[in-house]
Automatic annotation (TrEMBL):
Keyword entries, A-Z: Endonuclease, Hydrolase, Magnesium, Metal-binding, Nuclease, Zinc, Zinc-finger
GN (gene name): Zc3h12d
Domain of life the protein comes from: Eukaryota
Family: Belongs to the ZC3H12 family.
Record InterPro entries: Rege-1_UBA-like, RNase_Zc3h12_NYN, ZC3H12/N4BP1_RNase_Reg, Znf_CCCH
Annotated organism of origin: Baryphthengus martii
Pfam families recorded: RNase_Zc3h12a, UBA_6
Named cofactor requirement(s): Mg(2+)
Name of the molecule in the record: ZC12D ribonuclease
A GO cellular component annotation in the UniProt record: cytoplasmic ribonucleoprotein granule
Domain C3H1-type: 251-276
Residue runs in coiled coils: none
Zn finger limits (C3H1-type): 251-276
Length: 307
């Protein structure tokens, strides 16, 4: 009896150890339904379901590579962006925090508002750069509000501290703006800041173009993070296309013909005619022949016999 039940549940995909453990608890004479309920209660799953739950490896081709070889990355990797259509986001934490604090207080709540805004849009790669000395207790000349938010974002692998140290009582701080621009450039993402990084634009010509085209400005309105709907001006892309890897082109808007139904250009007219949507594109002569019900061949013969 023990062997028959063991073979039965093994065919269903359950492990032998789990089956033996259940049979020891319920006894060898336990019904199959009771054994199955106990296996489910214990959290045991068939091997087929466990294999379906495991993520499949993705094949990613490095940017700029023309070869057919590709590396394998899993969805859980930190450096891989699982979203296929949204750009990575790199936030200038100091700039955002000081803007939210009216340039008087380093407000960590402003960083949280910015991160939440991009999370709601579906961005999965979000990095915030803040100098390491911001972990120190606040002082009167450098007040910090809601400092615990930095610890929470660091645990979520969103916040990154740029290095700094003290040498003979003086603080040596690395240039965090260079970290921000470099990471955003390598990830082909978007920089969130109101800083123009003019010194870095003069330092590297490639960074100059990238900063001009991928810098996203913002404003805080009543504790609401608000980037502009036209990040590159009125004639530039919309905010949705600016944050997307594959922008969606708008449908062409045709200008209606000023002559309307009185237009005599026929299919050569470059304007929009709503009355011709379901009609064949005919020339004016063919349209006139169709109205008087004259065959096209007959009209051509008359034209050829004309003296």
């Amino acid at each position: 009896v023990h062997q028959s039940k063991l073979d039965f549940f093994c065919k269903l995909g359950y492990g032998k150890q789990d089956i033996c453990k259940v049979l020891e608890n319920l006894g060898q004479e336990a019904l199959e339904d009771d054994v199955l309920k106990e296996l489910i209660r214990m959290g045991s799953k068939p091997q087929a379901l466990e294999s379906q739950a495991q993520p499949f490896p993705l094949k990613l081709v490095a940017r700029g590579s023309c070869s057919a070889t590709s590396g394998l990355k899993r969805l859980g990797d930190d450096e891989s962006d699982s979203s296929d259509y949204l750009r990575p986001i790199v936030i200038d934490g100091s700039n955002v925090a000081m803007s939210h604090g009216n340039k008087e207080v380093f407000s960590c709540w402003g960083i949280q508002l910015a991160v939440d805004w991009f999370r709601e849009r579906g961005h999965t790669y979000i990095k915030v750069f803040v100098p390491l000395w911001r972990k120190e207790p606040p002082r009167q000349d450098n007040p910090i509000a809601d400092q615990h938010i930095l610890e929470e974002l660091e645990k979520q692998s969103i916040l990154v501290y740029t290095p700094s140290r003290k040498v003979k009582g003086k603080r040596v701080v690395c240039y965090d703006d260079r970290y921000i621009v470099k990471v955003a450039y390598e990830k082909d993402g978007v920089i969130v800041s109101n800083d123009h990084y003019r010194d870095l634009q003069n330092e590297n010509p490639e960074w100059k173009w990238f900063i001009e085209q991928r810098l996203l400005m913002y404003s805080f309105v009543s504790n609401r993070f608000m980037p502009p709907d036209d990040p590159l001006g009125r004639r530039g892309p919309t905010l949705s296309n600016f944050l997307s890897k594959k922008p969606v082109l708008p449908e062409p808007k045709w200008q209606p013909c000023p002559y309307g139904k009185k237009c005599t250009y026929g299919n050569k007219c470059k304007f929009y005619h709503p009355e011709r949507l379901h009609q064949a594109q005919l020339s004016v002569a063919d349209e006139l022949r169709a109205k008087i019900k004259v065959p096209v061949s007959l009209g051509k013969e008359k034209c050829n016999r004309w003296p």
